[in-house]
Amino acid sequence: MSAEDMEMKHRGSDQQNGSLTAKEPPGVETVQLKKRVGLFSGVALIVGTMIGSGIFVSPKGVLREVGGVGPSLLVWTGCGVISMMGALTYAELGTMIKESGGEYAYLFKAFGPIPAFLFQWTNVILLKPSSLSAIALSFAIYVGQPFYPACVVPDAVVKFLAAVCIVLVTSLNCISVKVAARIQVFFTAIKVLALGVIIGVGIYSLAIGNTLWLTPEKAFQTGHTITISDVGLAFYQGLWAYDGWNNLNFVTEEIQNPVRNLPLAIMISIPLVTLLYVLANVAYFSVMTPSELLASGAVAVTLGNRFLGVMSWVIPFAVVCSTFGACNGSCFAASRLCYTAARKGHMVEILSMIHVKLLTPSPALMFNSFIALIMIIPNDFDAIINYFSFAAWMFYGSTCLSHIVMRFTQPDAERPIRTPVIFPALVVIASLYLIVAPIISEPNLWYLYAAIFILAGLLFYFPFVYFGYHPPFMKYITMFLQLLMNVSPPTEAPK
Length: 495
Ligand code: ARG
Description:
Elements: H1 3-9, H2 39-50, H3 54-57, H4 59-66, H5 69-96, H6 103-111, H7 113-144, H8 155-175, H9 177-207, H10 216-219, H11 228-242, H12 258-287, H13 290-295, H14 299-307, H15 314-343, E1 354-355, H16 362-375, H17 381-409, H18 422-441, H19 445-466, H20 474-485, E2 487-488
Antiparallel strand pairs: 1-2
The chain binds arginine.
């Protein structure tokens, strides 16, 4: 589209900030994100982001920390319970505040713009892109492995494949919300099926008598005494596999009938994933002894190699599909956070714009992926997960606190779903523990850097948001990018 066409289409530019605004003639579709997420795709957005690479590799991390089969299973169940309590809290928040952006919208409403700004700053710049790149790296390892049967996949190849995955997922999301939602459903079905295969192998293995490590005497035999910080670290590993339980809350405005579908999708998804995860772990422990599990690089693949014979390729293939789908779900939700924050003036204006024909938030999608591509470069994957969890739980805790606070500050707000206060209260306690335990057990300067990073957001908040300073050249950059990407600010929803 030429600049002239653009002018025609967007008659009248918004004089205040200099951006071109879409003013559609009557009868023409408004430039807006459409409500394309139904119950099915809602479940897929949760389940399909939760199930990524974690359940195929993290059982080793949990077992390493707590040392026994029984405690491991308890940790996996506990992680499911915490996620469920968090998600039920978010069900009340999401039906009370029907805005996209998840925690951002809730923190804004409860505590005002500064905590919301710090949340979006940390998530948009750091957490969302780093989780996308972490999942893309797992995808890359599993795609590359068949080509290097005798050795580990070279680093450069892994990084290249991860970049391809991010670019592909972003392009699909930029092209169509409908396509992205369908892809999500398709890959979710594959990964649930794959876990079904793993659980099936477990049932078979139990049936032929491999129950030794699941008997009470053996299950609670641990290699070492479990300290309170071991439990914390084990929870970190498990909770990474459950992360994504809040994903649907980022897209509330795009859910059809959100008051029904958001809580329903939550209540279907989290128990389903918990059940699948716990049973998958039972399967692993029936097929392998704890020491074999600790020696295995990827537990699910070891299980497949032992029991699936010529079909053992199914497992790595499933991990590839699973991680690809999780990247898609991550990208989908992260872009909505960035888009919502930009709409409120907390991010540069271009990120609040929508492609005028495809009706996708393409600038936000591209921005998220651009940072994720940069984050592929450093090597330390475990570190990414650890610092990710530390900061993520700070915000999950504050959001659950906002639920409790708003019961007092906004007692009359309409709440179609009321979650008992005990749930957010327990999540607040759990998150305090998760934040403090690793700092005490392994004090590390990185936690300080993370805290400094979060607070550094204020250096941007005060000049650009609070005092509203807009460098004059910004409006030209915005206009140039608008013409380049064919995007415009969303028009008002038809009443
Ligand atoms: N649970 C996923 C996995 O096991 C990771 C999810 C990352 N979080 C997110 N919001 N994308 O791989």
